[in-house]
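Q: Joint fold for the lines below.
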Amino acid sequence: MAVDLHTHSLFSDGSDSPTEIVNAAADIGLIGIALTDHDILDGIPEAAAAAADRGLRFIGGTELSVLWRDQSMHMLIYFLEPGAGPIQDRLAELRESRHSRNVEIASRLEQLGVEITMAEVEAEAQTGVVGRPHFAGVLIHKGYVDSVPEAFERYLAAGRPAYVPRKRLTAEEAITLSRRSDAVAVIAHPHTLNLRAAEFATGFSELVDLGLGGIEAFYGEYTPEMRTRLAEICDALGIVATGGSDYHGRYKPHLAIGVGKGDLRVPDTAMDRLEEIRQP
Ligand code: AMP
Ligand code: ZN
Ligand code: FE
Ligand code: FE
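A: Joint structure:
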């Protein structure tokens, strides 16, 4: 039995509603799903209700971009609900800091000769968090670029002319706040870190000591060999090998729910183990 523990809805930078994501997961035979929108929990009640309707197991979560050794690391935080709480309150701050950043990105694009308004970007985002993929969507509609990756390469990625950094927690803060929120923190797609292969086995031990719950080993962009190797590292560290598609709908059209690029399979035991380690 398979699950998908990494998905984005229109509450952040995916294009599908939480209900559409859950239905698509059920239709292909998954037995569990997690919703992990960036910095926002507002899609979780809808996803939980849809999952109950379809008889799927469900985990509410979020994906954070955090700082680790001067690098950008993505962390998935599982077992969250909207409302107040240690992590929830920080998410609100992160969302506020996005707004001033987005205004600055728009003004940089204008200086580069791109005609774009925040109203257009907000319309593209539909609801919830506004992020760079929504700028990319407007750039595509207006004919400035042909694809989301091209928008990042020309304008939006770190080091490109319209890039503006935003506020982040550190990896250590994210893990500590997660534990105080009865949530479980997991390193997402670790191969996007600048880390030599030999460092994967040892590089995260300090984070494990702080309470890191897992590493996303089963990821669509990785070869089967990398997935197996990462799962072995998780076993050795005594943490959970999780996985997911990172589905974003039309913003990442090459990634499908449950199966990623086509060959992904995330065992449901990953979900069992996350639930086990959440118990105090
Ligand atoms: P933001 O939350 O505004 O910082 O945007 C981050 C999101 O943009 C990531 O989660 C990805 O979905 C997407 N993204 C980041 N870098 C790239 C890239 N080089 N090409 C395509 N999408 C990207
Ligand atoms: Zn995203
Ligand atoms: Fe990510
Ligand atoms: Fe993601």
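Q: Anything notable?
A: The pocket of adenosine monophosphate (ligand 1) is lined by residues 13, 38, 131-133, 148-149, 152, 157, 248 (CB under 6 Å). The CA atoms of residues 121 and 135 lie 6 Å apart.
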